[in-house]
UniProtKB/TrEMBL annotation:
Positions of the DUF4440 domain: 34-141
The protein's name: DUF4440 domain-containing protein
A Pfam family: DUF4440
Gene3D superfamilies attached to this UniProt entry: 3.10.450.50
Residues of the signal peptide: 1-20
InterPro entries linked to this entry: DUF4440 (IPR027843), NTF2-like_dom_sf (IPR032710)
Domain of life where this protein originates: Bacteria
UniProtKB keywords: Signal
């Protein structure tokens, strides 16, 4: 009787607060998988190949830059391959990964990078929001938006 009362109270509390009693999207294992995919993308952006980038971004990619430009999968990969966008270093800090459900995750982090875009050295400091989607068993970047930190 005491156990039944506990479960009824827990169910009522979950309904009242809108909370689920199970981990969203698979818990720590899914978070680690998303974080690993994000790390593979960081590395691929420094040393790009069309194959490595293509495997990590969705066909429907919407890649928003801090200056307002929005890339598709094709233009994102092309800019990295031809040096229009050239990352010499990328340092990621303050990363959080929230797995929303079995196929969707939100990744936020700060990005500091040395660049050499079209042969012109520079530095960027950004806050990034990324939406990752599990496709065919692999996590892929579906959408990304950057804002300047200062």
């Amino acid at each position: 009787m005491l156990i039944k009362k506990f479960f009824l109270m827990a169910a009522a509390a979950a309904m009242f607060t809108g909370c689920a009693m199970v981990p969203a999207g698979g818990g720590a294992s899914a978070q680690a998988d998303v974080a690993a995919a994000a790390e593979r993308l960081r590395i691929a952006m420094i040393d790009p190949t069309a194959a490595s980038l293509g495997a990590l971004v969705a066909d429907d990619l919407s890649y928003g830059h801090s200056g307002g430009k929005v890339d598709t999968k094709a233009s994102f990969i092309a800019d990295l391959m031809d040096g229009k966008s050239d990352f010499v270093t990328i340092v990621i800090t303050d990363q959080t990964v929230k797995v929303v459900d079995a196929n969707t995750a939100i990744v936020r982090h700060s990005l500091a990078a040395d660049t050499n875009d079209s042969g012109k050295p520079g530095k960027v400091a950004l806050k990034i929001l990324g939406v990752w989607q599990k496709q065919g068993g692999n996590w892929k970047l579906l959408a990304r938006q950057a804002v300047r930190t200062s």
